[in-house]
Structure to design on (1145 residues):
């Protein structure tokens, strides 16, 4: 008899697992818990055993019945909950609750990265006014009055001696005036050129200027610094060249080109078929400039460099019209 | 400047591809901006001689021509009425691109193919000058003059188009490179070749120049040298083809042989010359003097010029005949009738020429060279070269001798150079020997040496080399920038200043996180917009256009412009910000380390919001943006910077651009405002939806920012929370109610927040119900209900006394 009870218990365990729906559940109840079910039959069969054994067997049957009722109730609850959820119909494919998405202007992003690279090399950040004196914008940078070099930069004038700065270089003078060497700064800022607005030029743009004056600064080190910058910014496999150029406030002066990354140096529209992209101008600070700020040109040497943030952004993002940077079309801004 | 490859080869013998030459020149600091192959246009066109003309068997108006094209004879079907035997004509062969199709309305170009015309094979096409784009005549084929022409030469050869032209950007410090000889000198240095200067072979007549003219130089400062020659019996006519070809290649239009030769010498040697009609010079005299104010003169271009005091003039015995170094006059111009000429080759002071050119707004090939600095010691060579060419081309008579007024000859500069200085500037290890050799390549010669100290003589065609550092640049250039090795010292320096915090960047990052898009706008705008804010705006003296003739005084017009453009593209919900400068005339500003007397620049932050307030979602109702959106942004921004004592104050007076304006105050300093842009301002930008802005002076905000955070221990005793709703007059600002609650509650009140406002049917129409959440807490003990009840009673009483507020049950 005990063995039979054990068998039934095992059977219940197995059957309960196979219940998938309310129909199965009802069959289970009919099979075990109904008046004609297996457990009722067990109670009926108790009469056929000895009186001594009856109390202990009866207890076992009671336990079996309680067990069976418990698993039945549990299963019933689970099935009910399941069907409730089904009726609620949560559609998880509906869009989530979002916020407006902000963005940094691409020029800011480019500048941030340039700043980060030079700050890691130990450059401080300085700035100065956009409305500038002729003295700082030209004269102290070794553009004498009546010098043809002034024609290189078409200037907006406010008055005879006041203008909108045409480069960030005047801040070099302002920084050197108030600092004794070593001086190591970068100077980001807005500059203006009186040029017709087109896809290639705008009436204003942004530059980052760099200046390092100390004892023993060489052209070799200038190259090293800028090559390091270019590799950090454009990628470590880049090829570069320095070629002579002319800026009144540096001597020797150079322009730095990198191989065009759009055509791999084979020549394309952007690099004007040369395979090279000009990215910045640089040079050793001209001793004449030191005269204006009272530095001893026998003791100190230094270098300066400058690059256009628009130009570098346009190359990097493949933008072919500078004006779109200042249109601020939200569809454009959200791409960055 | 345009430089012709063929022309260059007269002075230096090199054989490299145009591409390699361009790269080498660029690496030497002469940036080749483009290479133009002149022969591209007339590939596959050849000069042929018509041997025989036969009627076409199947067409009346067509002929079959047998044409000798040098290496063979071909058959060409031709429809021109003027075709006949023994003509020299231009034949387009298959593959040639005919520039203009004369049977096409748009005259589009087309490519020739071998075809059959009415059953007869045609090997090419005999072209008209219209088809070749050499003239406008369409009536028949182009027949070339037979002066020694041989069939078989290409049209390119015939037209002198077998040339390659380089566009070179010459920096202003290199006047010596504004000529073919100058570029050839650089090429000779680059490729270690010999430079061949043109050979002079001048035959003078017996007639002496001294009797033919007199030259007086009144201003020797502005005209240190004046050289003149006289050439008689010239025949003014078109130049020979070789001369025209050279000039055409470099973009100079041939005029007549005399003018062309002066231009040729200009482009060859870089020295400007001028030819006067000798017989138009009163008393055959030249006087170089400065102009008086108000003198009048008509230049060669036919324009009347008002002269200014101090401009240098070339005059005859009574009147100006040229503006020195800039442009000649119509009164002494070379014409077809000119018989005798006076040639001028002078050296003028660069500053004087530049000033004149600027004042007249007249820049010429000549003025550009003089103002950058010509070579004073080339005048004689240049004038002799021109005289020789004129003689060669016109069989003229060059008078014996020349006038040369040059009382104080300009000597070559001598410059000291220390090899140590070279190496300490460049980071190289050069010794005297390579330095000497490098400089010798460009005619800079070593005169003396004492150990590391060297003395060099600088030729006068290099006015840019004045100092040791200029020589160092030449050494670096000739040595090759790419050959200077990178040697880095460590750049690490240990600093003592606190870490630089860029507050602009912090604000940017914060606002991007809040869903704002950064914009960067033009700081130039029209005077009307700059003047809107009633501030004293900065005006541009020489603007590009009216709508960019002033500096902005507010970022609002800038941002409205962006709003307008975006609405135009259907982007109507915008959250924008910009950090930018505004500019004012301000007489209170003195000159300082970072200021210009009379001008003020302010850095400002603008936030702008328009359209719906929150990002739309299917579960939410959409609300339009309002002033509270931006008020909340500004408050949170201040919390981020630990600014807690700010106040918003609304005056009844609005700003010129905004209404509903709330001023932002901190420690009694007003440094910004929040507002709704006025309708009439929006109208200027055709904007029909509301735009809200917050405009904050960042320079002032920056001075308030406090980065010192201090820890405050967390409360140890529980908080008691009570809600109170008061019914008050609608007109009473909530801010006043909050102040009263705080004041009447005492210091156990930790915070009070408005959480609901109700107006409507359930209370009377002139009232509103304001519900507040109050939090009480003590740092010393757990508060009892009785304690809090007492405080609440007091609040209710004071609210009632002060605002006639009743508790809403
Ligand atoms: Zn490319």
């Amino acid at each position: 008899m005990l063995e039979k009870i054990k068998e039934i218990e095992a059977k219940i365990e197995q059957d309960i697992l196979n219940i998938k729906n309310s129909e199965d559940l009802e069959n289970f109840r009919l099979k075990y818990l109904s008046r004609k079910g297996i457990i009722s039959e067990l109670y009926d069969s108790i009469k056929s055993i000895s009186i001594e054994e009856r109390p202990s067997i009866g207890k076992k049957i009671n336990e079996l019945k309680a067990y069976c009722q418990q698993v039945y109730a549990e299963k019933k609850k689970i099935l009910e909950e399941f069907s409730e959820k089904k009726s609620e119909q949560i559609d998880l494919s509906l869009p989530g609750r979002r916020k407006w998405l902000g963005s940094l202007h691409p020029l800011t992003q480019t500048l941030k990265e340039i700043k980060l690279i030079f700050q890691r090399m130990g450059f401080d950040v300085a700035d100065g006014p956009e409305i500038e004196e002729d003295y700082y914008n030209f004269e102290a940078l070794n553009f004498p009055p009546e010098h043809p070099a002034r024609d290189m930069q078409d200037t907006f004038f406010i008055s005879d001696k006041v203008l909108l700065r045409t480069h960030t270089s005047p801040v070099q003078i302002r920084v050197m005036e108030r600092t004794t060497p070593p001086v190591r700064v970068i100077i980001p800022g807005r500059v203006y050129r009186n040029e017709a607005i087109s896809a290639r030029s705008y009436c204003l743009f942004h530059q980052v200027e760099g200046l390092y004056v100390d004892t023993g600064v060489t052209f070799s080190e200038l190259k090293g610094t800028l090559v390091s910058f270019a590799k950090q910014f454009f990628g470590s496999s880049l090829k570069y060249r320095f070629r002579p150029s002319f800026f009144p406030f540096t001597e020797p002066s150079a322009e730095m080109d990198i191989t065009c990354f759009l055509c791999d140096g084979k020549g394309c529209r952007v690099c004007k078929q040369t395979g090279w992209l000009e990215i910045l101008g640089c040079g050793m600070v001209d001793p004449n400039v030191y005269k204006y700020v009272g530095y001893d040109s026998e003791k100190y040497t230094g270098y300066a460099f400058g690059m256009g943030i628009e130009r570098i952004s346009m190359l990097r993002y493949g933008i072919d019209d500078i004006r779109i940077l200042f249109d601020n079309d939200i569809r454009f801004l959200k791409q960055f | 400047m345009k430089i012709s490859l063929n022309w260059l080869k007269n002075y230096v013998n090199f054989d490299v591809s145009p591409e390699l030459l361009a790269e080498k020149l660029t690496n030497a600091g002469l940036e080749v901006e483009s290479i133009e192959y002149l022969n591209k246009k007339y590939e596959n066109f050849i000069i042929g001689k018509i041997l025989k003309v036969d009627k076409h068997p199947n067409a009346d108006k067509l002929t079959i021509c047998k044409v000798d094209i040098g290496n063979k004879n071909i058959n060409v079907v031709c429809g021109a009425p003027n075709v006949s035997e023994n003509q020299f004509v231009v034949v387009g062969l298959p593959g040639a691109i005919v520039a203009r199709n004369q049977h096409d309305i748009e005259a589009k170009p087309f490519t020739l193919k071998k075809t059959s015309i009415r059953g007869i094979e045609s090997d090419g096409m005999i072209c008209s000058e219209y088809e070749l784009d050499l003239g406008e005549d369409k009536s028949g084929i182009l027949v070339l003059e037979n002066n020694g022409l041989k069939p078989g030469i290409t049209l390119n050869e015939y037209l002198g188009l077998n040339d390659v032209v380089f566009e070179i950007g010459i920096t202003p410090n290199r006047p010596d490179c504004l000529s073919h000889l100058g570029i050839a000198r650089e090429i000779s240095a680059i490729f270690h070749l010999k430079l061949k200067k043109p050979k002079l072979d001048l035959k003078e007549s017996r007639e002496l120049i001294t009797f033919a003219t007199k030259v007086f130089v009144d201003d020797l400062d502005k005209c240190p040298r004046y050289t003149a020659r006289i050439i008689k019996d010239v025949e003014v006519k078109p130049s020979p083809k070789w001369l025209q070809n050279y000039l055409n290649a470099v973009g100079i239009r041939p005029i007549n042989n005399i003018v062309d030769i002066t231009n040729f010498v200009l482009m060859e040697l870089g020295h400007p010359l001028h030819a006067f009609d000798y017989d138009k010079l009163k008393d055959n005299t030249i006087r170089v003097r400065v102009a008086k104010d108000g003198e009048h003169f008509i230049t060669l271009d036919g324009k009347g010029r008002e002269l200014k005091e101090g401009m240098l003039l070339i005059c005859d015995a009574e009147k100006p005949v040229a503006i020195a170094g800039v442009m000649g006059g119509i009164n002494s111009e070379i014409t077809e009738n000119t018989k005798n000429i006076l040639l001028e080759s002078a050296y003028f002071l660069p500053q004087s020429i530049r000033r004149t050119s600027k004042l007249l707004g007249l820049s010429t090939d000549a003025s550009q060279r003089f103002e950058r600095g010509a070579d004073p010691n080339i005048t004689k060579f240049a004038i002799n070269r021109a005289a020789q060419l004129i003689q060669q081309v016109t069989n003229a008579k060059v008078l014996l001798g020349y006038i040369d007024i040059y009382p104080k000859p300009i000597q070559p500069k001598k410059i000291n150079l220390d090899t140590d200085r070279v190496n300490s500037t460049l980071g190289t290890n050069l010794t005297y020997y390579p330095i000497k050799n490098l400089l010798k390549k460009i005619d800079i010669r070593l005169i003396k040496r004492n150990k590391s100290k060297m003395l060099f003589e600088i030729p006068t065609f290099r006015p840019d080399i004045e100092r040791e550092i200029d020589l160092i640049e030449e050494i670096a250039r000739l040595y090759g920038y790419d050959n200077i090795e990178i040697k880095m010292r460590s750049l690490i320096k240990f600093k003592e200043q606190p870490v630089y915090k860029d507050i602009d960047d912090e604000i940017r990052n914060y606002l991007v996180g809040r869903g704002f898009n950064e914009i960067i706008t033009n700081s130039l705008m029209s005077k009307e917009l700059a003047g809107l804010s009633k501030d004293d705006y900065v005006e541009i003296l020489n603007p590009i256009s009216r709508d960019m003739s002033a500096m902005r005084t507010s970022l609002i017009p800038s941002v409205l412009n962006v709003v307008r453009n975006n609405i135009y593209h259907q982007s109507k919900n915008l959250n924008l910000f910009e950090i930018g400068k505004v500019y004012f005339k301000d007489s209170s500003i003195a000159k300082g380390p970072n200021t210009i007397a009379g001008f003020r620049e302010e850095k400002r932050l603008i936030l702008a919001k328009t359209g719906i307030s929150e990002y739309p979602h299917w579960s939410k109702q959409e609300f339009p943006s309002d002033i509270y959106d931006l008020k909340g942004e500004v408050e949170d921004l201040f919390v981020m910077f630990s600014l807690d004592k700010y106040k918003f104050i609304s005056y009844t007076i609005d700003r010129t651009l905004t209404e509903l304006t709330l001023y932002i105050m901190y420690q009694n300093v007003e440094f910004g405002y929040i507002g709704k842009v006025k309708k009439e301002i929006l109208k200027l930008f055709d904007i029909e939806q509301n735009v809200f802005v917050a405009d904050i002076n960042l320079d002032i905000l920056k001075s308030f920012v406090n980065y010192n955070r201090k820890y405050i221990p967390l409360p140890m005793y529980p908080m008691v929370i009570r809600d109170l709703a008061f019914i008050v007059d609608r007109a009473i600002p909530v801010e006043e109610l909050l102040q009263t609650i705080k004041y009447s509650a005492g210091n156990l009140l930790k915070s009070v927040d408005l959480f609901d406002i109700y107006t409507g049917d359930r209370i009377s129409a002139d009232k509103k119900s304001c519900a507040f959440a109050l939090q009480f807490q003590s740092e010393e003990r757990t508060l009892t209900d009785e304690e809090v009840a007492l405080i609440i009673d007091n609040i209710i009483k004071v609210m009632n006394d002060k605002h006639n507020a009743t508790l809403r049950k």
